[in-house]
Amino acid sequence: MILGQNQYGKAENRVVKITRDGDTHHIKDLNVSVALSGDMEDVHYSGSNANVLPTDTTKNTVFAFAKEHGIESAEQFGIHLARHFVTSQEPIHRARIRIEEYAWERIATSDANSKFIGSDEVRHSFARKGQELRTTQITFDGENWEVISGLKDLTVMNSTNSEFWGYVKDKYTTLKEAYDRILCTDVCAAWRYNWTSDEDRMPHWEKSYEQAKKHILQAFAETYSLSLQQTLYQMGSRVINSRSEIDEIRFSLPNNHHFLVDLEPFGLKNDNEVYFAADRPYGLIEATILRDGVEPRIPVDMTIL
Fold this sequence. Notes:
Layout: E1 13-21, E2 24-38, H1 41-45, H2 55-68, H3 74-88, E3 92-102, E4 104-108, E5 116-117, E6 121-128, E7 133-140, E8 145-158, E9 183-193, H4 205-222, H5 228-242, E10 246-255, E11 258-260, E12 275-277, E13 283-290
Antiparallel strand pairs: 1-2, 2-3, 3-7, 4-6, 5-6, 7-8, 8-9, 9-10, 10-13, 11-12
Helix pairs in contact: 2-3, 4-5
């Protein structure tokens, strides 16, 4: 028997970094998971820890780097960590950093005695934004980088401009064709950057994320949808066409079904107004959109991000 692929590290290190710019505070709230691999045969075969950097040390490094390097973006922070583990420990040949970022927004107030940013935002009071969870995965092997960023749990809905008809029917088909339906999904997306090594050409991570999200939302809103697959393709195409730094984007989109409620027993007509929102079972639509000539490399299992 031989040892196959293996890795180890400390998962889900919750680090919150407060940057104080005078009276104005800024928050970065991350969930960081570290996975290291390399010359680890001996620890598996004989229990020798001679090449093992303790997982507790990787945890401490996450918190120390939040202080020493700050957190400009999830991607930049992951790059600092991955480079450190691979270049400072000879037995470690590859580091993979996965990060989830929780967003916060300032609380608006009408209290005239508060310190404001602009007209109505408190400098140090925040509420967790619930719109989506930002994700990134950074992998470094000592020479080349791979950065896959994305988002999940971004719930979107079109209350019209969606149809579904003309599908295959057999003896088990009961679904009625729909010519005006609700289209709702929880967007889970991951996109791969074509940046691999030249740090002078490193993307602007914060801008790139915001722009990719913008194009996803705009495509969802502007597509008259005959199927969720069509909408998915338009969302991915918009990102690839608009962002030259992104070569590949993968979506996992549950179809959050909304069924018209039969109100006839009550003597009422339901003119596309009242729906039952079913949470399960649900259709699940997944696909990858690629720049022409690019080979797919994003893992099929979207849940890793």
